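Anyone up for a design puzzle?
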């Protein structure tokens, strides 16, 4: 009985420790799917090598778009909605 309770407690602890990593991985996947149609091949390669979170990468793409097209440009709205 003690062995079963210990195993259940260990399993619960492992799940609690893995949950934040799984949530971050799923969020990165969601943002990547929204950004994928907006990125060219070079951006996609840079995203694969990116060590930060997906939102910060999307924010850098949005800032680059604003530098090219001007502040609050309508052509940059797709990036803005992808990172939200």
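Challenge accepted. My sequence:
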């Amino acid at each position: 009985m003690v062995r079963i309770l210990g195993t259940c407690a260990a399993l619960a602890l492992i799940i609690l420790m893995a949950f934040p990593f799984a949530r971050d991985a799923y969020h990165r996947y969601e943002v990547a799917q929204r950004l994928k149609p907006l990125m060219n091949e070079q951006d996609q390669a840079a995203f694969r090598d990116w060590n930060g979170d997906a939102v910060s990468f999307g924010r850098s793409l949005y800032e680059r778009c604003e530098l090219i097209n001007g502040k609050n440009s309508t052509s940059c709205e797709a990036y803005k909605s992808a990172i939200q």
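A detail worth pointing out: The mean pLDDT is 87.
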